[in-house]
Amino acid sequence: MPKPIKNISSDFEQVILLITEARNRVYSKANAELVLLYFNIGKIVSEKVSLGNWGDGTVNDLADFITEKQPLLKGFNRRGLYRMKQFYEVYSDEEIVSPLMTQLSNEKVSPVVTQMENLVQRFCDKILSKISWTHHLLILSKTKSIEEKLFYLNQCLNEKLSKRELERQLNSAAIERTMLGNKFSNAITSKLPTGIFKDPYVFEFLALPEIHSEDDLQHALIKNLQNFILEMGKGFTYMGSEYRLQVGNKDYYTDLLFYHRDLQCMVLFELKIEEFQPEFLGKLNFYLEALDRDVKRPHENPSIGILLCKGKDEEVVEYALSRNISPALIADYETKLIDKKLLAEKLHQLSEIFYRNEQ
């Protein structure tokens, strides 16, 4: 009689893990080859059209020729070929590729690079091939400036965004809100890192009524924690709500406490359903001090506080934060998606406020 096999379940799981990892490697390699193929086809079409060798009718003829020779292939119609052409043209400009290589791959581009073609090919291999063609199409169709493209390429690379997650970032104007958060924090304090926090935050997934309580907001965010973390960024890890802090003989409870892996610090979100008032900062600073004294570990950085308010006067916030010691951000929150034009106007107004104060 054979002996019973021990840990057979874990053995089976190990086999499944090997299959999954191999499948992911195959998918990654296939995607890289597909993106490189589209880039190289786009190069041919772009160069032929720019030299006047091909016209619009020739591109149609090419689409028909591919269909005739490879009838099972998808995506090589006239529209698809022009998308490949656009893809190549956007990411083959030296003024674009050099800074993108530096920022996205941390590779310093030498001014002595002998051939621009080599630089473009290296950029395609190191950056573009790491992102799926579906993601590229979304970024190409929903962004205008190269700054926007850089931002969302970076998001895809660093946060491994799914198609749905990228669509939400694009539709909720993540770059504009990140720029607002950066501009405000840079103008007031150098204590906050750039590119991490947004202003305003958008919680359209909560389905909250226009009139709601702070408890309603807190419970809805906890219930939709996955979407909340997606809105904040994937570096955040949830530590708890109503986190207890004991100071003296009293207990105090924070709203939502997170840990940021890259920043190596705790991030406290305090929720207000009214417009920002200067006295809110006192309570926030008290909580941050308690966290740093009693919870923070020696190797960790000082805690950061985010006050989420239902509206704010930028000048009032600027006055309130000008002498604030703790790293803190006062941000709006919205329960519906925001028009990008409104965010652009807000960015312009914020710039004017700080410009006047500098005079």
Automatic annotation (TrEMBL):
Entry's Gene Ontology molecular function annotations: nucleic acid binding
Pfam families: DUF1016_N, YhcG_C
Matches recorded under InterPro entries: PD-DEXK-like_domain (IPR053148), tRNA_endonuc-like_dom_sf (IPR011856), YhcG_C (IPR009362), YhcG_N (IPR041527)
YhcG PDDEXK nuclease domain location: 196-347
Residue ranges annotated for the YhcG N-terminal domain, each copy included: 17-177
Taxonomic placement: Bacteria, Pseudomonadati, Bacteroidota, Sphingobacteriia, Sphingobacteriales
Protein source organism: Pedobacter jejuensis
Name the record gives this protein: DUF1016 domain-containing protein
